[in-house]
Every structure is written in C-alpha cells, then in structure tokens.
C-alpha cells in the first residue's frame, strides 16, 4: 500500500546556463558575492496526493516530461521530497530502463550482484540464478559482459533480476517496452503474480494498451500535477487520448473492450 | 506482431494542467493519519542507527562481491590484465626509489632505505587511494543509487574493500622485496604484528572514507582539492624521509604531533613490525647518549643506527594505543556523519 500526501519534488541542476562558464566569470561571481547563477531549480512534482491499496496495479500516464519517472523514484524513496510525504509498506523497488548494474561485468556476475544488493543471502542468490537466466532468455550470452548486450537483452535481464524477489511495492518504468512479444507475455504474467503476492504495482508506460491490460487504476499527470485519477481505466485513457489529440479507440459498446485485440497478450491479462 | 496500433501521446495538451486538481477517490481521513492507521512508513526516511547497522550487516556479501567484481573489471580492458594489480605497486615503489634513493640521495640517516621507502609508499598509498576513490563514490554510483534501495554506506565500504584487496597484493609484493637480496630482511615473529597494523589502518580508512564520501557528494569542488591535500599529507607523514631528521626537530612537540598523525602512525607501526633496522634505530630505544645522538644524521653510514641513543619525540610505547584510538574515532565519526545524510544521497 502506498499513500502519497501533497508531494513536491525539486531537482537542482548545476551548470545550467547563466554565465559563460569561464574562470573569469566564476571569479567575478565570487568577488561580487553573488549566488551561483547557474543553479536552476526544476519543480518536477507540484503537489500530488493519492492512495494505492494492496493488490492495486496503478498505471501512470502523461506526456514526456510530465514527471512520471520522478514520481516513481520518489515513491521508491530514491528522491527525497521537498515537501509532503510518501508512505509505503516495507521497501519499494524501482525497475527502470536505466537501472544499470555493472556494464563491464558478465551477465552472470550482474545476476548475483543484483540479488545480493536486494538483500538476498549468497545461497538464495545461487538458488535463484538459473530461474533468472531462464526467465530473461539471455541464454548463452550470460557469460559475456553486459555492455555487449542489446538494449532489449539488457532490460530483460534487469527485469528478470528485479522480479525474482517478491516486493511490497514494485515500480515499473517502461521496462517492458523493450522486450519482444514472448517476453512481454511472460512479464505480464509475472507482474500479475506479484500483484497476487499482496504487492502494489506501479506502471509507467506510453503504450496505453499495456496500461489498459495490466492496471485497475490510472493516474493521468501533466507538468507535475494530477489531471485525473481513478479506477475508470478505460474512461480516463479515452479522455487522455482525446485531450492529446490522438485518434479515439474503437471499442465494443457493451464490454468496452478494444475491437480487434492482440489475442495472446489479452488471454494472459485475464488469466 | 505489429507496432502500428500502439498508442502514444503526441500533440498539444488541450486541458490546462493548472485547473483544480481533482481529488479523485481520496478517502476522507487526512492522509498522514491514514498512513499511520495502516502502519506505513515514510519511504525516504533515514533508518535508526541500529536498524541501519543491521541492514548493512545483511549486505556484507554484497559488499564483498561488489568489491571483487570491481577489482576484476578494473583491468579487463588492459592487455596485461590482472598482472597490473602487482605491477602498479612495484612501479610505484620503483619510481620513488629512482628519484629519492638514487637521484636525490635523500636516504641520509636511514638504514636500509629501500625497505623503509617501499613500506611507507605502500601503506600511505592504501589510505590515499581509499580517500580519493570514496570521494567520488556517490556521484559515480548515482544510477545504482537511483535504481535500488540499499544502505548507501555499502558503497564507500565496498570501495575501501577494493583498496584492501589491492593492499593485500601489495603486501605480498612487499614481503618478496624485503626477503630478496635487495633488502636481506630477516623473517621474524615481529612480522605477525603487520596483521593488526593493517586491520587498524583498514578500519581508519573505512571511517575516513565514509566522511569523505558524504563531503564529496555535496561539495563537487572537493575532488579537485583532494589531490593537493593528499600530497601535503604525504610529505607530512615521513613516507620518503624520516620525520625525526627534519630541520624543525628542535621543536620537539611539532615532531611529536607529526609522528602521531594517523598516516605516519600506521606507517611506523608497519615499519616497526617488518623492518629490523627500524626497530633498532627508533629514537629512545637505547639509553640517552648525547654524543652518539649528535653523530647521527651528520656523518657516515656507520652512525645511522645512533638515532636510537636520542630522546624519543612521541613515546613509541603508546603507538598501538594511538593506532586503535584513530581507528575507532574515524569509524564512529565517519559512520555517524555519513548516516545523518542517508536519505539525501541520490538527489542530482
């Protein structure tokens, strides 16, 4: 369960324009006792409040730069709030596209290190190893350095590592977008399992179909604020599409389901 | 499977985001009360000291595995590979010996200069590398910090462990140099004292590493300044020459202070355990004799051991106590200082 109460997040960016960045301007700034003009504050989340319960899968939608990834980091406790608070049960784990482990090391070592960092013992990490490798589908490349992986292979392995443990709160940041069809079906099934293990799942995705299939609750945010939120997933998504000027989705008037669906993925979401 | 029906979010937003934020289906209870009711905790809160220590303890195997993995990764690109772990300390000692032993002949007053120098360089290097690498550990590990939730102190700890593993190899190299015909150092039971000396220095390095890690995470200018601080510390710690032979030795308290500074102290502890010549020539180890003491450091090689007839500056009987004191002090202060900012690491 996650409670977010009037959350504000501010990034401080150094060296963001201002002066020309030469030694002379730096000296003038110090002599003139001016504050560093090149620090810029970016108010990324501007007062958000919501509650997500056990077994909820919350989809977070919005345009690029609306603060979705920042919100996830804040819920995970990785970014300290400027104002307000985030309350969670236990530990929240973020699964992002850029959750880089050690690029120079082999996939094998990355699996073990990732497991240990999540607090597993050596034995647990060893026991989980084979199932992680199988799940990721990296196969024979597991003993190559991770920097040689394609981005799809890398994020599959990272997802497999993070999903090997059951989390109280799991935050997924577009990690599934890179996988192939088979892997997406597998990862949907795994997220469904995690939800049933009494966890709360957050999903950031630009692929709205994915949100529709996986989530029972949606938050639509723009410029660090909530536009709409609620359990009417289909309604909010349609509103969002209409607001952003996209083409409306063809839906079956009775069930609200999309007409002409991808069958395989849908079966999984229902199961 | 085609991607053409995948919906994205292009175009301009038609609903202004600055309109009143709808409360959606928020419960009527104030949210902090609701959180308390379900027993939730703030996600970015700093855990209490004991809880933090327990979390760290559970990450021991992560710290060790991380250090080993980094150590291996460090040289995977180099053609000579892991050989560099041994070559680096050897070359280091070689450079200093060439300049200070052969070219400058600064070894006046120090018997068995090569062993003296190499021991000093290796011991100081351990602290120097630990301090410099931990000063950037937080900025270097931002992706990891922003991806996974774990006690951040494991990172500086792992970096010190990397240097510790390197130091163990350096010590093996040192042992070989000492027993080789270059030094003819006898292997005695005193060598066992190198183990507690190294342990104390490692604890000290962990403490100071934690301290430097937090300072380096907020003050970016710090890593620019650090090389100069470290070089000053190097020359103040008697790595290349004997502190007791400095011109300022008439100010006895100044020499005593230099001798008990942590770097000089751990170097002295290591030298005294490994080098017979150092144990024999330590000031104060023989009854005071003004004539013999005056001869030391002024005349030929035969008088080099006569420093033993001089008064000591800082009492060598208490060096181990000082060593323990520095280690404990650094660890407690460093840990407390690092833990205070636990929730703040990771802000860009």
Low-confidence stretches of chain B: 1-21
Give me the Rg of chain A, rounded: 21 Å
CATH architecture of one domain in chain A: 3-Layer(aba) Sandwich
How many H/I helices of chain B? 15
Q: Helical content of chain A, roughly?
A: 25-40%
The CATH superfamily of one domain in chain A appears as: P-loop containing nucleotide triphosphate hydrolases
Secondary-structure element order of chain A, N to C: EHEEHEEHHHEHEHEEHH
Shape of chain B: elongated
- Residue windows where pLDDT falls under 50 for at least 5 positions of chain A: 261-271
Order of helices and strands of chain B: HEHHHHHHHHHHHHHH
The largest sheet of chain A has its strands arranged as: 5-6-7-3-8-9
What is the helix fraction of residues of chain B, given as a range? 55-70%
What number of domains of chain B?
A: 1
Give the terminus-to-terminus CA distance of chain A. Answer: 23 Å
Q: How would you characterize this protein structure?
A:
The complex is a heterodimer of chains A (271) and B (348). With 271 residues, chain A is of the alpha/beta class. Chain A has a domain at 53-91 and 167-270: P-loop containing nucleotide triphosphate hydrolases (Rossmann fold, 3-Layer(aba) Sandwich), CATH 3.40.50.300. Chain A is built from 9 helices and 9 strands. In chain A, a hairpin with a 2-residue loop joins strand 8 (217-222) and strand 9. Chain A is globular and about 60 Å long. The two termini of chain A are 23 Å apart. Residues 261-271 of chain A have low confidence and may be disordered. By secondary structure, chain B is mostly helical. Chain B has one domain (48-343). Chain B has helices spanning 31-37, 49-58, 60-74, 84-103, 113-134, 137-140, 142-147, 154-179, 194-218, 222-236, 252-259, 262-274, 276-281, 290-295, 319-340, and one strand at 41-42. In chain B, helix 4 packs across helix 5 (113-134), helix 5 (113-134) runs antiparallel to helix 8 and helix 5 crosses helix 12 (262-274). The radius of gyration of chain B is 27 Å and the shape is elongated. Residues 1-21 of chain B have low confidence and may be disordered. At the A-B interface, strand 1, strand 2, helix 2, strand 4 and strand 5 of A face helix 1, strand 1, helix 3 and helix 7 of B. Strand 4 of chain A pairs antiparallel with strand 1 of chain B, so a sheet runs across the interface.
